[in-house]
Structures are given as structure tokens and as C-alpha cells.
Design goal:
The complex is a heterodimer of chains A (147) and B (139). By secondary structure, chain A is an alpha+beta fold. In chain A, 20% of the residues lie in helices and 35% in strands. A five-stranded antiparallel β-sheet of chain A has the order 1-3-4-5-2. In chain B, strand 4 and strand 5 form a beta hairpin. Classes of the chains: A alpha+beta (147), B alpha+beta (139).
């Protein structure tokens, strides 16, 4: 069982820069062909300062911290028993290639169901820009199968 | 499809039918997404973990569902996007993404449409259910 004393734990904030090449690679991997996400000229023509981050990409940036799996290791989560239960994004504005964003994650909750056979970890992450303004809020629900 | 600012409850986005999931796609997505969990790309690891095979990242399926939105909605109008992963997506699964407007409402002085979203496979099994909120007044 995961130590319930970890509820409320804040991870060390880290910064990640969204790179245009990485956005194109991501677009190719998911089959995104909308030129706004792969072609700088199309992005600018649509009013963007650069390639916009596509939906869900902030989750990937959160995995790009200095220790990508620090969160999982800190909680002692075993990948072989890990499932992604839920994921949500609330956007305050669109972020673009070249921006450096700060990710601050905390353990919002840990609970279990079925007599401990399933444990749930709720992680909430605030994403802010270089000026400290809110860009997005992410909530991740992880499921650990103990059965 | 009618213009976004005319959307009303019950309106559906044109369904997005995806090609079968391939191992190559899972490997590409592992690199592109930064999610290197071996359960998605290493069959030896997956079998040792009690799985019959590697399976898709939930976030790959969510990102593909995101294409249903980006095909019709400017990215700057996306206010919220959420999903619950209901079942594992396996190699060779053929997925279909669907979205239906469930409400049009004014929030924070902005007209917004709320969508129910789903991803199902060739057998009709629901892989993912979710929702999105899109600003209409800024379009």
C-alpha cells in the first residue's frame, strides 16, 4: 500500500521548453495533419506566434522533467501494476513552441477500492509561464493493481 | 458540419475512424510523448507483467481523440479536455472517435459548448469516455 502520509506532498517544480521539432514528432506519432500544428507559416497565418501545443502535449512535457519518473519512484509505484485511470486538462491559454513552462505537481489524494486491490493516486499539476501566469491545470488519476 | 457558433445540444462531430493500432505507432508515440513505460513497447516486459502483449498508451488514444476536436475547433478555443480510460487498447484494434454536443451555456461571459466524447473499438467496446469544453464566442 502507498503511504497515505504522502497526500499533500509537493514535488520540486521544474521547467521545460516546448521545442518545435518535438511538436512535429508528436503530431506525426498521433496522425495529426492539421498544418497549424506542423507548419510555422500556417500557425502564424492562424494568428499564433509559433506552433501551438496540441491537446494533451502538456502531459508529455510533464514527463520531460529532469527526472521523468521521479513522481512514480517517490511513491514507490511499480510500472508493471500501473494503469492510467483518468486525465484532464483545463486550459487558461494556448501555449506555443519556444515557451518555457513551469510544472508544479502535488499528490492531491490517495485512496483504495475493493479492499485495497486497487489503489488510486490523484496528481494535480499547475502549469505556469515565464511570467508566473497560469497556462493550464492537469489532473492525473493513476490506478495501481495490487491483486 | 454546420458552423461552430451554431452548434446546439444533440449535434455530432463527424466520427473519426482510425487505422489499426500498430507496434510501430506505439514505439513512435513512446519517443514522441516521452512515456517510455516498457509495458507499451517491450513484449518481454509486458508478458512478465502478466499481459498477453504490449498495449497502447492511454494518452495515445486521448491524443487521437484530440484530433477529433482539432479537426473542427481552433486550438485556442479549447477550454477543457478530460477522459477516463475504460479499457485497454490493443495492437490491431480499430478505433472510432465520436463527439456530441450536450450543452451550450455561458460561463465567465463566454458562450461555450460542452461535448461528450468516446472512443470505441471494432467490437463496440468503449475504450475511453470523456468530455471537452470549447469556447464558441471567440470563434
Amino acid at each position: 500500500m502507498i503511504d497515505r502520509a504522502l497526500i499533500g506532498l509537493e514535488m520540486e517544480p521544474f521547467t521545460v521548453t516546448a521545442e518545435a521539432g518535438r511538436l512535429r514528432f508528436f503530431a506525426r506519432a498521433i496522425g495529426e495533419t492539421n498544418p497549424v500544428f506542423v507548419d510555422e507559416a500556417a500557425a502564424r497565418a492562424a494568428g499564433h506566434p509559433g506552433l501551438p501545443l496540441p491537446p494533451t502535449f502538456l502531459f508529455s512535457m510533464e514527463l520531460d522533467g529532469p527526472e521523468p519518473f521521479a513522481f512514480f519512484h517517490r511513491l514507490g509505484i511499480d510500472f508493471a501494476r500501473l494503469l492510467h485511470g483518468e486525465q484532464s486538462f483545463t486550459h487558461h491559454r494556448t501555449a506555443h513552441a519556444g515557451e518555457t513552462l513551469t510544472f508544479t505537481a502535488r499528490v492531491a489524494d490517495i485512496y483504495d477500492k475493493k479492499g485495497g486491490a486497487l489503489e488510486f493516486v490523484v496528481r494535480e499539476t499547475k502549469v505556469t509561464d515565464a511570467a508566473g501566469a497560469a497556462v493550464a491545470d492537469l489532473t492525473t488519476v493513476l490506478v495501481i493493481r495490487n491483486g | 458540419m454546420k458552423p461552430l457558433h451554431d452548434l446546439a445540444p444533440g449535434d455530432e462531430l463527424p466520427a473519426l475512424e482510425l487505422p489499426p493500432v500498430t507496434r510501430a505507432q506505439l514505439a513512435l508515440f513512446a519517443g514522441a510523448s516521452g512515456d517510455h513505460n516498457p509495458i507499451h513497447i517491450d513484449i518481454d516486459f509486458a508478458r512478465a507483467a502478466g499481459q498477453p502483449d504490449v498495449f497502447a498508451h492511454g494518452m495515445l488514444v486521448m491524443a487521437e481523440l484530440g484530433r477529433l476536436l482539432t479537426a473542427h475547433v481552433p486550438i485556442e478555443a479549447l477550454r477543457a479536455f478530460s477522459t477516463r480510460f475504460a479499457a485497454v487498447t490493443r495492437v490491431h484494434d480499430r478505433l472510432t472517435c465520436r463527439g456530441t454536443v450536450v450543452a451550450v451555456e455561458t460561463v465567465d461571459g463566454e458562450r461555450r459548448a460542452r461535448f461528450d466524447l468516446s472512443v470505441t473499438d471494432q467490437a463496440g467496446e468503449v475504450k475511453l469516455v470523456g468530455g471537452a469544453t470549447v469556447a464558441l464566442s471567440s470563434i
